[in-house]
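Our preliminary data section would be incomplete without showing what the modeling component actually yields. Below, a chain of 169 amino acids is followed by its predicted structure, encoded as tokens that our downstream tools consume directly.
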Amino acid sequence: NRYHFVVVTDPAKRAAIGAIYKRVFHQEHVPLSGAGGQSLTGSMPRRERVQESASYLADHLGQVPVHIIPCVETRFENAGTFRQATRYGSILPAAWSLMLALRSRGLGTAWTTLHLYHEKEVATLLGIPDDVTQVVHLSVAYYTGTDFRPGQRVPARDRTYWDMWQHTQ
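Predicted structure:
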């Protein structure tokens, strides 16, 4: 598998990607629904906190100092499940490992995909060839604050099946 990381630091290109993302978020993307749940802090329901955070990112993405777009050298139109899984099976762990490495160096990241609604527009902006697929967009910046805590997750036992689908122990 051949994968690549396009690192974008040019202010005009970051602003253009941010404008695309903002347009998708506010005009084309259906707002988060079903995120439900109680707030981790008790101050605001979880769905509202997630929506507020997502909206803030959409409005400010172009100002984030570094954008990274992991890509693979292939297109997935009409590709079978095996081919897709094989290609994504290399780039997704690589992107996640990059995020962990950045975090260990005091940098925060956000995994986003809304720009993919207009993948060709971003490809043109960045000179990405037609036979390359953008997989994700990582915004990278130094974080502020120290109030990190584990994210609220569904218990593993509710998502883990033994020997057949939906068979839990």
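Residues 113 and 136 are 5 Å apart (CA to CA). The longest strand covers residues 66-72. Preliminary results of this kind motivate Aim 1 of the renewal.
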